[in-house]
Amino acid sequence: MKAIFLFVLLWTAPLDAAPFMRPPAFLGGIPGRAQFQAIQLQRHQARTLLYREALEELRNNPHAADVPDCPAGKSAKGVLCLTKPVQKDTVALPPVAIAAVPVDPSVATVAPAVLPPLVPPVATPPPVPPVVIPPVAAPVEKTLRRKIAVLFGINSYKDPIPELGTPVADVEGIAEALRKHYGYETRILRNVRKKEIIQTLNEIAAEAKADDSVLLFYAGHGYLMDDTQMGYWIPIDGSVKTAANWISNSDISKLLSAINARQLILVSDSCFSGSLTREQKMTSGVSNVSRVLQHRSVLAFSSGGEEPVSDGGKEGHSIFAWSFINTLKSTNGVAPGFEIYRVVHGQVMKDFPQEPQYGAVISAGHTAGGEYIFEAAN
For residue 354, which of 110, 103, 45 has the smallest C-alpha distance? Predict the structure, then answer.
């Protein structure tokens, strides 16, 4: 009865009260799947109403959010444009043999316009079992020149777009795990505008070499259009009245394509972030890292599929970010991205009815046999 009462209360809440409405978590505990699906629909309808003017602009002009390509032979510095892809380097790498990686299968992030985050009851987090990795013949780091991680976390949206509670803390926690446990150079960008995101990714495209490993992470608002199935990031300067400062999946794919690193992964903790993973689903099966590293690997790892995701979770992080951080910290040796995904997927699904996704971004140049490799520094 309490859960039903809360559901009716949230359904009838006025749209303009959304940013200030923060009722407690579900009074009846974590909702069942049928209830969750009903709330998903409600949240999406509320978000659609909030963004109605920007969405109408996109229906009239599907390219309203697009960024033009940079002129041939000219730098993107100081100009909002997309760096064009360069010819990918295919220099062979030294052989490094590794056995398939077994993982114990037992071993997000948008507040809606009308509703508060779907936050499960706070509980003491259970320990995450370590990812068991067999010995390797030689360290993978000898074949990778640099490991670079760029993380965007956006909390402080302007009214009427609701603020988020965890993205900045999420990117800080993930960056720390990547830096200390994996040896990444980390760059954190907090509460950034569209121009800053585009220019940063252009800089990575100009800087990254073929034998680098690049990880990108985005936590913030997002939206998926029902009719075109195009997904968007909504940076801090995103508006409900125009889509001009939104970032489309099409442009994200172009930005990924321009980054020359053979090892490239985008992790997105955002509403409807799973749309980038649909091009090709990935499965386990890595048996030889040296072969993997000779392929162009572009992967997308999302906190959910085509559903809203939770902005509340554990220890000040979203459920997805908390699971990702703890899985990164518990991994020893070498693990393909799919195995990291599988552990995170199991942990998230155990705590909340949102389903992380993992797939290859063919449009950004992923080739058969590719996979992202996580390799602990010690």
Answer: 110
